[in-house]
Amino acid sequence: METTRDTASLSAKPRVYLAGFDVFRADAAAHGEHLKALCRERGMSGLYPLDGQVPGDLDPVSKAQWIYRANLELIRGADIVMANLDDFRGAGEPDSGTAFEVGFAVALGKPVWGYTTEERTLVDRVAVRHDDTASFCDRGYIVEDFGLSMNLMIACTARIIVGGPGPCLDAIAKE
């Protein structure tokens, strides 16, 4: 027999944590509102990392710690994590904070979805030199070649959609 609480939880909107380097955009707050609107259009509730108000009287390190704790709480409260996995400060590499959030969500057992605009494999995007045994980046390190679009630790844990946040949310909604 379903209780009232069970019925309420079944009808609640899925909460989607919106991970990504979008928080570093000049229009980060407006973009966050756009992402949350995309979620609402699909019957979901978006949780954006900039939703909280950082106390103004904190020193820089304390502000960083406040943001860290607040974002972990948002992830804990989310049903799903959706991450912008596009290249950030280098070819083939998503934002390191986003990668951390993806790993944290995976450790909590939360479903993780990611989106990227890049279809090519990691080795096709990053490698500058090839020999008979491997491909190498411009710093001389081997570029993994599993036919994936990004590092295997993310590619094997997140359901990755080629496109932007809208197509990714559409795929989530279909699940």
Word description of this protein:
This protein has 175 residues and is of the alpha/beta class. The protein has a single domain, classed as Rossmann fold, CATH 3.40.50. It is 41% helix and 15% strand. The protein is built from seven helices and seven strands. The strands form two sheets. The chain has a five-stranded parallel beta sheet, with helices on both faces. Strands 5-6 form a two-stranded antiparallel sheet. Strand 1, helix 2 and strand 2 form a beta-alpha-beta unit.
- Give the oligomer, counting copies of the same chain as homo and different chains as hetero: single chain
Number of helices: 7
Secondary-structure content class:
alpha/beta
Label the CATH architecture: 3-Layer(aba) Sandwich
Share of β-strand residues? 5-15%
What's the shape? globular
Count all strands and give the number: 7
Which strands sit side by side, in order, in the main sheet?
A: 2-1-3-4-7
Tell me the CATH topology.
Answer: Rossmann fold
User: What is the H-and-E element order?
Assistant: HEHEHEHEHEEHEH
What can be said about the biggest beta sheet?
5 strands, parallel
Helix content: 40-55%
Work out the count of structural domains.
1
By CATH reckoning, the class would read Alpha Beta
| Cα-based radius of gyration, to the nearest Å | 18 Å
